[in-house]
Design goal:
The complex is a heterodimer.
Chain A (H helix, E strand, L loop, with lengths): L1 H10 L2 H4 L3 H21 L3 E7 L5 H8 L12 E3 L8 E5 L4 H13 L5 E5 L1 H5 L21 E3 L6 H14 L2
Parallel strand pairs in A: 1-2, 1-3, 3-4, 4-5
Helix pairs in contact in A: 3-7
Chain B lengths: L2 H4 L5 E3 L2 E2 L3 E4 L1 H12 L4 E8 L2 E8 L4 E8 L4 E3 L9 H11 L2 E3 L42 E6 L11 E7 L2 E8 L7 H5 L4 H9 L6 H16 L5 H29 L3 H22 L8 E2 L2 E2 L5 H27 L1 H7 L7 H7 L3 H5 L7 H4 L20 H25 L17 E8 L4 E8 L5 E7 L6 H8 L7 H8 L4 H4 L1
Parallel strand pairs in B: 2-14, 3-6, 7-8
Antiparallel strand pairs in B: 1-3, 4-5, 5-6, 9-10, 10-11, 12-13, 14-15, 15-16
Helix pairs in contact in B: 5-6, 6-7, 7-8, 7-14, 7-16, 8-9, 14-16, 15-16
The chains are: A alpha/beta, B alpha+beta.
Bound molecules: iron/sulfur cluster.
């Protein structure tokens, strides 16, 4: 284990070593995001993720925000376990009827001021599941949405962009 | 003719069903197949509803051969398979919810997917009903001094899918776990009805995001079987490449996440990088990180890029250096093994009764792997091993994943060597002018995905059923956690990593 730790130390962070355009864009974005987070919220934006019936694709990319390339936590943006600790609800999925109540109750449990981000094409209007007997069709049908992040699923870069946009508009 | 098919000699074989036979049987034969499954002579691969009929796919592992058995139910009833074979119970509860067909003798008649929140009842029946008043769901009981219940979910603490777990605990030890699923039910099979193939394929791709390639492949192969289409060789190889990349990405993610649930974040960080590298290579190669909508009926939708192949080669050579070091790290960290060894044991008998696929089955001595057992192309031409262990604990499920990563890395090499660099990627899916049916079974990272499709004469989907491997893994998790401490549930759960969405549909 010592070797691995040592190598990681010597090698430096992955974000800077990766030359791909995607990674560069992500790094720029991440920096801007860090600045805004500090200005507006003093380095502490707590995000509670709610899967309201997604296919899990969106969750996979939200997870990726935590990996060494994107490392969301270095900006004080972090995912929290309880809605009661959250400033932001990050909601995915076409809101199934079976999840509607749970989503509503989770929203109620978030203390104000609070923001809602709907992530993914499903969360906008139900996406390819709209019209189903089992789906409400879009997060805004159930709770007020401040921002929508497009994509199926949105890439981690798009998610970072969305968080940035929210911070820019939040007062 | 297979021995399995011969034993169904009294039934009527449906010619339009490809590539395996479908046999329409009477009550007696249906019951006898059910009891052979119950006696572990045959394995249940799936059980699903249709308009006034039920179908079950059965596997005879000794041959191996697969047959679909159909029981027509003009009066809306059929003899319950769950009565003699408990793994069928949830499937029958779902059939009841969706089609309103009544399994006679079903031991647990509580609704499963229908939580009483839709504005229809039996949405897939020819004449859906208005919902009736119903009592709230009752959980199974456990009685005794000092037992307490812990309800968890549907909204969980982490970034995961929704589901409800009802624990009954005696102090720290779990006495009973009951799962309640269906929260992510989106009505996918209903949405597929009458849909053109392209739309249905997009829905299949969004059944379970982590298995989008596997589910798309199962759906595509079922459609191609029905229409009698052969996809170009280049597409066959490219699909296998995608399937192995998906397996790698998920196994890396899982190995890291399991260790993370044992509070070993270092492994998680390194595995997260490996996973991200796979996704970036996939994106460079085919323009989507999860490769959604890349496998389509008829072939592959997108031309792979040369830059993508180069990135893939870089990824392979880098990973072949780093991964063995992580394996060593896992193997040498006693505090980590302390959590994983002996935790969440699945007895081999249970894995075989439930026909558990994937790492859950293979960690408990069930060697089934659709790539090997059913050898769909191109796997018959590739050399790989199917790792099997019999300890059945979290540790074994980690080791199966580790060995499968090694096998998949080798498979990716072999596929890259054999993959034709030029040639067509797809053929059109042309309607045959007749009703036709197809079945396919494909090995996803989590286990075998089954797709059954019936197309009308315009090649629109009349009925499609997608069975995620999680159907036969979720119930086993309830058994695996028994007598373990509540705090080990996340670890056990992650080592299964069942799909909610794939199961709920
Ligand atoms: S937007 Fe796409 S990835 Fe996200 S939940 Fe919907 S179908 Fe899945």
């Amino acid at each position: 284990m010592r070797n691995i730790l040592l190598q990681s130390l010597l090698r430096g962070p992955l974000t800077e070593r990766h030359p791909a355009t995607d990674a560069t864009a992500a790094a720029e974005l991440a920096e801007a995001l860090g600045r805004s987070a500090r200005n507006r919220l003093g380095r502490s934006l707590a995000i509670r993720e709610v899967d309201a019936g997604s296919c899990n694709g969106c969750e996979l990319e939200i997870h990726a925000l935590g990996n060494a390339y994107y490392d969301l936590e270095r900006f004080g943006l972090r995912f929290v376990a309880s809605p009661r600790h959250a400033d932001v609800l990050l909601v995915t999925g076409p809101v199934t009827r079976n999840m509607r109540d749970a989503l509503w109750r989770t929203y109620q449990a978030v203390p104000a001021p609070k923001w809602v981000i709907a992530a993914g094409d499903c969360a906008r209007d139900g996406g390819c599941f709209s019209g189903s007997y089992a789906c409400v069709g879009g997060v805004a049908e159930v709770i007020p949405v401040d921002l929508h992040i497009a994509g199926c699923p949105p890439t981690p870069t798009a998610l970072l962009q969305g968080l940035l946009a929210l911070l820019e508009s939040a007062h | 003719m297979s021995v399995l098919l011969e034993s169904l000699g009294a039934g009527r074989v449906v010619e339009a069903h490809k590539p395996v036979p479908r046999v329409v049987v009477d009550d007696d034969l249906w019951r006898s197949v059910a009891s052979r499954i119950g006696a572990s002579e045959l394995t249940l691969l799936g059980l699903w509803g249709d308009i006034a009929a039920v179908h079950m796919a059965v596997l005879d592992e000794s041959e191996p051969s697969v047959v679909v058995v159909t029981r027509q139910c003009p009066h809306g009833r059929f003899p319950s398979v769950g009565k003699v074979h408990p793994p069928a119970i949830r499937l029958e509860r779902a059939i009841r919810d969706l089609f309103g067909l009544e399994p006679d003798g079903l031991p647990d008649p509580r609704p499963w997917l229908d939580h009483g929140r839709w504005d229809v009842e039996s949405p897939l029946a020819p004449r859906p009903q208005r919902p009736s008043e119903r009592a709230p769901t009752r959980f199974l009981t456990a009685e005794g001094d000092g037992l307490h219940q812990i309800p968890v979910g549907p909204v969980h603490a982490g970034i995961i899918e929704p589901g409800h777990f009802r624990f009954t605990a005696n102090g720290e030890a779990v006495v009973r776990l009951e799962e309640r699923l269906g929260y992510t039910h989106k009505g996918i099979e209903w949405l597929m009805q009458d849909a053109p193939i392209e739309r249905a394929a997009r829905l299949a791709a969004r059944t379970s995001g982590d298995s989008t390639v596997a589910t798309s492949l199962a759906f595509a192969r079922a459609v191609e079987a029905a229409l009698g289409i052969d996809v170009p060789p280049r597409a066959v190889w490219l699909r296998a490449l995608m399937a192995e990349l998906e397996r790698l990405a998920n196994h890396f993610g899982d190995i890291g996440a399991i260790c993370n649930d044992a509070a070993f974040a270092l492994m998680h960080a390194h595995c997260g990088v490996l996973r991200e590298n796979v996704l970036r290579a996939s994106d460079a190669l085919l323009g989507h990180r999860l490769m959604m909508d890349r496998v389509v009926p008829g072939g592959v939708a997108v031309e792979p890029t040369l830059a993508g192949f180069a990135q893939l080669e870089d990824f392979l050579s880098a990973t072949e250096k780093t991964f063995p070091r992580l394996v060593e790290l896992y193997d040498n960290t006693a505090s980590l093994q302390d959590r994983t060894v002996g935790t969440g044991i699945v007895a081999p008998a249970l894995a075989s009764q439930f026909g558990c696929g994937g790492y859950v089955g293979r960690a408990s001595d069930r060697s089934f792997d659709a790539r090997r057992t059913l050898a769909y192309p191109p796997y018959g031409e590739l050399s790989f091993e199917v790792p099997v262990l019999d300890e059945g604990d979290v540790n074994a499920r980690v080791w199966i994943r580790i060995r499968e990563v090694e096998q998949s890395l080798s498979l990716v090499h072999q596929i890259l060597e054999r993959l034709p660099r030029h040639g067509a990627l797809s053929v059109p899916c042309v309607a045959t002018g007749k009703t036709c049916e197809g079945l396919a079974i494909v090995e996803g990272f989590r286990g075998d995905v089954l797709a059954s499709v019936r197309l009308d004469r315009h090649a629109h989907v009349e009925r499609c059923h997608l069975r995620d491997p999680s159907w036969f893994q979720w119930p086993v998790l309830e058994a695996a956690i028994e007598s373990n401490i509540v705090a080990d549930f996340p670890l056990c759960n992650k080592s299964f990593n069942c799909s909610y969405s794939g199961h709920d549909l």
